[in-house]
Amino acid sequence: MKRAIVCFAILVAGVLTWLGCDRAPAVKSNDTAVNALPSGLIATTARAGAKDILELKRTAKDGDAVVLRGRIGGRKDPIGENRAIITMIDMSLNPCNQPPETRCATPWDACCHPQDVIADNSATVEVVDANGQLLKANLAGKGGIAPMKQILVTGTVSGPVDQKNLLVRASSIYVVD
User: What's the maximum distance between 2 C-alpha atoms anywhere in the chain?
Assistant: First the structure.
C-alpha cells in the first residue's frame, strides 16, 4: 500500500511539473507592469515663458504652473529606468566635457562640480498618473530624451521649493534641438 501511495505522489508531482513548465508565464502584478505614457506628453512645439531651474527655485511655490528649462543630467543615470522620472541641471552649470572641465567619462553627471553645487542647480521631473502615482515607464529615447539634452518641461510644482529641492510634475516635455 505504501508503495502505491508513493508511486501515485510521484506521478502527480510529475504531471504538475510537466503542466507548469509548458504553460505561458503568469500575468505579472501591477507592480511590474509598464504604464503607457500620457498622450501629448512629448511636445512638438516649445512653450513660451520658460524659466531656468535657479530662477524657479527662488520664485516658485507648491502648486504653481511652470515651464522649466534645463539640461538632462546631474547624475550618472539621470533618466529613471522603468520610472518616468528625470533629473535636470540648470543651463548655467557646464557639463564636464567643456573646458576647463574635461575629465568626466559621463559629462552629463556634472562630476567635475561639488555635490552641493549640483544639488543647488538640479531639479526633478516626474510623470504621474491620475492618482498622483509615478508612472512605471521609461522616458529614455522618447522624442529624443537623452542625457545632456536641453528640455522644456510644462507642469506643476509639487511640494516645497528651496535651494536643494524643486519637483515638477510634467504635463509635457519638449526636447530642444
Answer: 85
Each of the 177 residues of the chain gets a pLDDT tens digit; together they read: 555 454 444 544 444 344 343 333 333 334 446 788 999 999 999 999 999 999 999 999 999 999 999 999 999 999 999 999 999 999 999 888 876 656 678 889 998 899 999 999 999 999 999 999 999 999 999 999 999 999 999 999 999 999 999 999 999 999 998
Domains of the chain: 51-175 (2.40.50.200)
User: Whole-model pTM?
Assistant: 0.78
Note whether 53 and 90 are within 8 A (CB). Answer: yes
Q: Which residues have CB under 8 Å from 143's CB, separation 6+? A: 42, 43, 173, 174, 175
Cα four-point dihedral sign 4, 7, 12, 15? negative
Query: How far apart (Å, rounded) are the C-alpha atoms in residues 152 and 18?
Result: 54
